[in-house]
Amino acid sequence: MSSNNGRPILEDVNVIVAGQGGDGSLTVITMLAELLRTNGLNVYTERDVLSRIRGGHAAATMRAFTGDRYCIGSNINLMVALDEEAVERNARQLDSKSVVVYDDSGGPIPSVLPEGTKVYSAPFNRIAMRTMRRELYKNSIAFGVVGRLLGLEDETLRETFIKHFQRMGQVILEYNLEALGLGFHLADEMGIHEEEGLYKIKKTAPEKRLLITGNESVAFGFMVAGGRFFCGYPITPSSEVLETLQKWLPRCGGVARQTEDELAGINMAIGAALTGTRAMVATSGPGFSLMQEGVGHCGSGEIPLVIVDCQRSGPSTGMPTKPEQSDLNLMVFGGHGDFPRIVLTPGHPDDCFYLTVEATNLADKYQCPVFLAMDQALSQNIATVEPFNLDGVSAVPGKRVEASDIEKRGVYKRYEFTDDNISAFAAPGTPGGLSLVTGNEHNEWGLVSTDPVNRVKMMNKRMGKIEVAKKELPRGRHFGDPGAKIGFIGIGSLFGVILEAMEDLKKEGIETQYLQPRTIWPVLEDILAFIEKCSRVYVVELNAQAQLAHILIHQGADPGKIINILRYNGIPYRPAELVKSVLEAESGSKIKKGKKEAKLQ
Amino acid sequence: MTMQTHIKTFAPARPIWCAGCGDFAVQGVLEKSLHKMGIPPHKLMLLAGIGCSGTIQNNLPCYGYHALHGRVLPAAIGAKLANPDLTVIAAGGDGDGYAIGAGHLVHTFKSNPSIMYIVMNNNNYGLTKGQISPTSPTGYRDNAESGLDSILMGLSFPSATFLARGFSGNPEQLERLMEAALDHTESKKGFAFLEVLSPCVTYYDTHREWRASVYNIDEEEGYDPTDRGMAFQRSLQLREQGRIPIGRIFKGEHASLESLILNKTELPPAQHKVGRDGHREQYEKFIDSYMG
């Protein structure tokens, strides 16, 4: 590092730490994220792991920035590669200005780097083994080098270590501090001295921001909405919803139960919902498939339930740790028979919080299943978000009757036909409100009935609730130039990628607009109107069958205007990749309208 | 029983069972026991599975629920944990409980919630016309396998607290067992499991056979239902002799699920008032914990 005066201020940096599972990549990234956040930067982190505890390629990526960013950037500025595979797998994200710190214990760096990439090589593993007798300290050694490169002060890095490792005991802390010291020494040898890194960090007091995942935000939204009963069965990538609620819900007098399977999960939540308790389950593809019978039962029996589907790559066991949006059909059309349902699609951890509050209220109000369609990246990536506004949300009770109301009416029918198709609910324990709840077709009293007149009326009542709900379901959020001819539609973790791709396209002189749908079932008029006013709309999806586009077309969108951009290789989109796909389509050379892009970068 | 008797709600249905079905005895004894224990209909949540027995909730005044096939136990546990003030009774047949829902029975023995579970065992699938069930003996409709004994299964759980078997042909004893089971759950002692031998007169009439093979263990001198080893040994011996033990087979002690997991300083989940629950302080703590 020759010049230290002209160092740019750190405003946007992407750092990846990659190696084998168990190498501690995530630890390094987590500590860096916390550290940069205390220096006033916002962060976003992503993990790329296999479904196993140790071994296999594993990487963690962090972006630190000023202002607003909702995804990992297009290029990695700084890479820490703990083995050859780490370089080979992630070289595609580097450019000529990238800096690579490479552990050459296992051999020289593979020649796959873009021209101009600066490489710092050192045998971190061998040094750790030689000096500390444990290879696991290699990431602490590397942390010293990376910290210096980022322009962080040695003392700040040391403090972070103390904060992070103290809870693991004095011995572990001392060893790690020793490893960090080795890292500083190594950095000196490489010529990376303190205050001579790539960036200058403009220390500002950190804004009040939360560092939180989508799953944790969903858990919190449920709590705040008065949710008091949760069931889950461990499954990647939804387990954090269970874990967060197991920690917090009992403190609010609620129950978060890990059940023996997903069948028990949804049915136990149903049992709680029958008592008037706000209930939720969270799962992922395979567990969601198991829950299907329960979903239809909620529709038929008019039982309020929130169902969170943290989508991962399918079908079947698929790729458990990879993001996908391929359960949309199952959420929108799954289950046997016809029944009402609502599917909401949050796009960022803060959106997860607000939409979960909505979902919980809507389930109670319309007495039907309400889905939250998440994806692995949205579920598990960590983002800085503004503190949730507790005064901006409220838990709105559903249509309930108490003993005194029933006393006045003199009659109680659980499935009474009403103007808004919603029947008042009397919780078990309420004198006078005796009722029957069943998935069988039933009459107003809840008694089983196959009478054809009643059947049609009852079906129309249930389906009719959705017509009433349409007026208040969450509308999409609009971004970009409202006059632009080119539109984007995309949900979940694609939200941030699309926003940034739009900025990059604008630099290329291409104006675009984006509608981030927040309700995909029923399909609301705002989405159809958006498609109508654009001359072509890129519907970006993480699945192979263009599920979202087909749902929109099914509900009246003009298929001639829709261009599918599909990805199902398990790798999260980077803005530049999306820009490339759009530019290719715009040039008309590679993709024709309505034809799927199955080509993967 | 309540002041609201003038309020019109659903009129309990007439049972759909065949004349002579053992389930009539079960319903009669259940109604009698509920009355005797002074449990008002609005405090009763009666959940039933799928099958002939899974219609019992339609026949008496209660908050009734017709569960999915095999899922009555998780639903009953959910209701009990959400509102432990309710008397929660699950009911179903041997197919519902021991085949499609067997996994949940295992975990209910394990977790010991204060609910009662009545299994009306008729050794076949009556509602779908007599197919082999998990309790069908070898030879019934060419059944190659042996029937299972749910009480022997229950005995293997350290957390089992109440295991009993009754016979619809012995309503006096069934009444004692039903009351004891209700008393067990009402005094929050945990899971009361009551299997009732309830013959299917239409597809597999075991009435006469059972009359001859039941063995009333309540009357056995020296039998100690609190002795798990003895309960296991006698059940096995009697089975080997072609006899079916009926009576209070096992009585154990173990903390109930709701006593272990509900926050005792808070109202139960179902009694929280939506929007007025007063947990703002916890919400703020949550937010603070993510500020780092």
CATH superfamily of the largest domain in chain A: Thiamin diphosphate (ThDP)-binding fold, Pyr/PP domains
Looking at CATH, the homologous superfamily of chain B is Thiamin diphosphate (ThDP)-binding fold, Pyr/PP domains
Largest sheet of chain B: 8 strands, mixed
- Overall mean pLDDT of chain A stands at 94
Under the CATH scheme, the architecture of chain B is 3-Layer(aba) Sandwich
Portion in beta strands of chain A = 15-25%
Task: Describe this structure as you would to a colleague.
The complex is a heterodimer of chains A (601) and B (292). Chain A is of the alpha/beta class and 601 residues long. Chain A has 19 helices and 22 strands. In chain A, strand 11 and strand 12 (319-323) form a beta hairpin. In chain A, helix 1 (25-38) runs parallel beside helix 4 and helix 3 (124-132) crosses helix 4 (138-150). The longest helix of chain A has 21 residues, at 170-190. Chain A is globular, with a radius of gyration of 26 Å. The two termini of chain A are 34 Å apart. With 292 residues, chain B is α/β, with parallel strands linked by helices. Classes of the chains: A alpha/beta (601), B alpha/beta (292). At the A-B interface, helix 1, strand 7, helix 7, helix 9 and helix 10 of A face strand 2, helix 2, helix 4 and helix 10 of B.
